[in-house]
Structure prediction request, 103 residues.
Amino acid sequence: MSELDKEFIYSGIQGIGETLLDRYENPTSGSLSSELMQDENRLIKKLGEEFAEFLRAILKTEVDIQEVKNEGADLLYAIELGMAREGLTLMDLIREDIRRNRL
Prediction:
């Protein structure tokens, strides 16, 4: 992976996290992200739906890689919404994963 790719990924993760934290702290009218983060029941439902869709995509007899990526990204978005409610970002999750899995 090139340094440019690494910087793109890092800045993207950081930017998404900052945006979601801001949307939670300063809800924006008409923002699905804000709406889901403000309504715990809707967020739980969204997480369940996205997880089910991801599972269906990876358990198909003939897996469609693009569908797996799409559904995985949707699930990740829902997870990030839940984390933002607690002041956390995907970067916090990645750091924890690295801490746990140091070889």
The chain has one domain: 3-100.
